[in-house]
Design a protein that fits this description.
single chain, about 450 residues, alpha/beta, TIM Barrel, 8-stranded parallel β-barrel, chitin binding
């Protein structure tokens, strides 16, 4: 009996410390400061969230192409209005919180032509001198404003968007891409992969003396096998966030809607269009599991349904471009979680025929083995969607989104895989005012409670 008690003690102690060590990385996109009305998010809204966050990543900085130095993308807010300092000062009120500045993040659109878009993120890593210039400027900025480190949300070119094909051409395309890989708008990928590894190594050497953190965010639709060498990067990074979402977006896929952030592979989709594939790639290629952070979105992607979209809403389905902009975010094709929840029909509205609201469809899928597994925490989910058929003057709408339940499932997946934790991208698009149920930050709360 004594032996059993000792074993039980160590099991419980291990579970406690594993939970305590799990990271919850909270991203904060400063563009939310410029929204209007209920969508406006300033630093005061952060405090209820930070009790759940181990790290806060503030974005975004960019690259000055004229001199290869880091620069604020919103100098008026970040420097003139002192937001950088106010963000880093949050550590005084939340002991243990680590605050990082992020560079890139898909926000630094310095090129106008597709082939030139975000070119500074490639040119700055190509020579020792340009790398050193950027590293020194980043270190100065981070130290000057008392950040704990820098997050490299590096803007490498994205994979080419999927085209809608016939079954025959689709089969042939799958064969050729299996052999040749997806086409990327970069003719120096091998060199850039090696240069980025050197860049990270040089960054770590510069940061080590001051104890600064260095992290990597892998942006959606950037091919990890093309640009990143996990084995070589692992010793120099504190952790890597895999942004496992935006597999489909209305900008990249205006004629077809599908799940935007599936956890597992779906039938008749590309095998890498899911979070589990990305996690396994990084694990199998040398990144320790405790350095991998699973990125979870708080926002929805939306498309406009037409009469050709069918009646069931089951994805994938033909579509006609981005859905209408929400009242808070004001961006076609994107809704915050609190914009989505107010559009979902209540049980009373369902009985009354939805009345222009969205019909929510919880993930109906289960893999075969789950029918024999009663542990709900390992349920494999593809995602939640909602839709409204076009009728009269009411436009159709199809929405793929994360809710508290699906986000919690992904946190459970991260725990089961022994990953370092999860990332919330980002807190400004969660229900930070508590408009849905009265509880603020329902998605963030859900993942924290699962870890």
């Amino acid at each position: 009996m004594t032996t059993m008690r000792v074993v039980l003690f160590f099991i419980l102690a291990y579970a406690y410390y594993a939970k305590a060590d799990s990271k919850v990385v909270c991203y904060y996109d400063s563009r939310a400061n410029h929204r209007n009305g209920q969508g406006k998010f300033d630093i005061n809204f952060l405090e209820p969230a930070l009790q759940f966050c181990s790290h806060l990543v503030y974005g975004y900085a960019g690259i000055n192409p004229a001199n290869n130095k880091i620069q604020p993308l919103d100098e008026k807010l970040d420097v003139n209005q002192n937001n950088y300092r106010q963000i880093s000062d949050l550590k005084r009120r939340f002991p243990g919180l680590r605050v990082l500045l992020s560079v890139g993040g898909g926000r630094d659109t310095s090129g106008t032509e597709v082939k030139d878009r975000n070119m500074p993120y490639r040119t700055v890593i190509e020579t020792v001198d340009s790398r050193l210039t950027f590293i020194n400027s980043a270190k100065d900025l981070v130290k000057n404003y008392a950040f704990d480190g820098l997050d490299l949300a590096w803007e490498f070119p994205e994979n080419k968007p999927k085209k809608i094909r016939s079954k025959i051409s689709g089969w042939w395309h799958s064969v050729t891409t299996t052999v040749a890989g997806e086409y990327v708008l970069d003719d120096k990928t091998e060199a850039h992969k090696e240069q980025f590894t050197a860049f990270v190594r040089e960054f770590r050497n510069s940061f080590r003396h001051d104890g600064l953190l260095l992290t990597l965010t892998v942006l959606p639709n950037v091919n990890s096998s093309v640009y990143y060498d996990p084995h070589q990067l692992a010793p120099h990074l504190d952790y890597v966030v895999l942004e496992n979402f935006d597999v489909y977006t209305p900008e990249r896929n205006p004629k077809e809607a599908d799940y935007t952030a599936p956890l597992y592979e779906l039938i008749d989709r590309k095998n890498y269009e899911n979070g589990d594939f990305q996690v396994r790639y990084w694990l199998q290629n040398g990144m320790p599991n405790n350095k991998i952070i699973y990125g979870i979105p708080t926002f929805a992607r939306t498309w406009k349904m037409t009469d050709d979209s069918g009646l069931t809403g089951v994805p994938p389905l033909p579509i006609d471009g981005p859905g209408e902009a929400g009242p808070y975010t004001g961006q076609p094709g994107l809704l915050s979680y609190n914009e989505v929840c107010t559009k979902i029909a209540t049980p009373t509205e369902v009985k009354a025929g939805y009345l222009g609201k969205l019909r929510k469809v919880n993930d109906p899928t289960k893999r075969f083995e789950e029918y024999w597994n009663t542990d709900s925490d390992v349920t494999k989910r593809f995602g939640t969607y909602a839709f409204r058929l076009p009728k009269g003057d009411t436009p159709g709408l199809w929405v793929s989104f994360e809710d508290a339940e699906t986000a919690g499932q992904k946190a459970s997946y991260a725990m089961a895989k022994g990953l370092g934790g999860v990332a919330i991208v980002d807190v400004t698009l969660d229900d930070f005012r508590g408009l849905c149920t009265g509880d603020k930050y329902p998605i963030l709360r859900s993942v924290r409670y699962r870890l």
